[in-house]
Design goal:
- It is built from 5 helices and 6 strands, in the order E-E-H-H-E-E-H-H-H-E-E.
- It is of the alpha+beta class.
- A hairpin with a 2-residue loop joins strand 1 and strand 2.
- Bound molecules: adenosine-5'-triphosphate and magnesium ion.
- The site of magnesium ion (MG) has 4 residues, from helix 2.
Length: about 140
């Protein structure tokens, strides 16, 4: 995790490994704690924490790994999620509540309700997702 502080801007970057369930959730938890330290309102922190946690779990469960970058400014958090594949075949389907390709062993851990992407969209003030098969998926969220 790297932190670069400019005037009124704090950047936090997290590398997320595929299938690393042991450390899954740490990035969103660190970001949440930092926002608490910085005195952000609880409602905003909760939205950032949920959106980032869902993004982090999707990188662990569905991707080949990637990064989550948070740009923190007074009153606004921008989150950039980039992974290195495999990409999403049908984005419209993936965005629908209840759609999931999570395998059985992942469902047994309590994931795979098909709620992550819809949750991210509803937590974010601005939400954009792009995906290319073989290349990867990128999600941009602004939470203010
Ligand atoms: N980063 C990703 N790379 C590849 N596929 C993804 C990625 N994120 C999501 N998907 C696909 O989109 C589907 C829906 O994702 P979503 O987060 O909404 O649900 P889920 O992860 O399956 O279940 P839940 O988030 O409720 O545990 C996934 O099942 C998967 O097929
Ligand atoms: Mg998910």
């Amino acid at each position: 995790m790297a932190k670069i502080e400019q005037k009124n801007t704090l950047l936090m970057t997290f590398a997320i490994e595929q299938r690393n369930f042991k450390e899954a959730g740490e990035a969103s938890s660190k970001l949440k704690n930092r926002l608490i330290q910085l005195g952000f309102p609880g409602t905003l922190i909760r939205r950032v924490a949920i959106a980032t946690y869902e993004a982090e779990m999707n990188l662990v469960i569905h991707s080949k790994g990637g990064t989550i970058e948070a740009e923190i400014k007074p009153g606004v958090v921008k989150i950039l999620v980039v992974d290195v594949g495999p990409g999403i075949i049908d984005l419209n389907k993936a965005m629908k509540t209840g759609f999931s390709t999570a395998p059985e062993h992942v469902r047994e851990m309590g994931f795979g309700a098909g709620m992550g992407l819809p949750n991210m969209r509803s937590c974010a003030s601005e939400f954009a997702i792009t995906s290319e098969l073989g290349t990867g998926t990128t999600i941009k969220m602004v939470i203010s």
